[in-house]
């Protein structure tokens, strides 16, 4: 019996993806931003625990966090973030998990992680290009005897 993949022509199985994800990427980045904010606000609120009534500063912080969380949740829903994703972000945050430690959305978290890694590598690449350009300038000055 042949493996299932053998039933698919190689030109199809190995073809690069041609679909344009640019618009979806923008939406995914926005959704990840909403979910991160929601989860981190809920985690900050959870970190305060039940200390709502200890002192004026603490009560004010709790009220600010709760208002910000309610507003962020409403904004996310209005922007089209699925309610289940929003609920999960609140749940993870209330459990004390920040987005950076355990993103509530598996794929958006991974996309954000990969995007950060790519941005870091592009920044490194830019640094290398600048160093190469500086070395080329130095070499040109040395070759002319301007040292």
Chart the SSEs and their pairings.
Elements: H1 10-13, H2 22-48, H3 56-78, H4 83-94, H5 106-144
Helix pairs in contact: 2-3, 2-4, 2-5
Described by strand count, sense and barrel closure, the largest sheet is:
none
Tally of separate helices: 5
Rg over CA atoms: 25 Å
Q: Helical content, roughly?
A: over 70%
pLDDT < 50 runs, ≥5 residues: none
Could you spell the SSE succession in H and E letters? HHHHH
Described by the principal axes of the CA atoms, the overall outline is flat
Sheet-strand content, in percent, reads under 5%
DSSP, total strands: 0
Whole-Å distance between the termini?
Answer: 73 Å
- Class of secondary structure makeup: mainly alpha
Mean pLDDT: 90
In a few lines, what is going on in this structure?
This protein has helices at residues 10-13, 22-48, 56-78, 83-94, 106-144. It is an all-alpha fold and 147 residues long.
Fold and architecture overview:
The chain is 71% helix and 0% strand. It is mostly helical and 147 residues long. The longest helix is centred in the last third of the chain and has 39 residues, at 106-144.
List keywords for this structure.
147 residues, mainly alpha, 5 helices
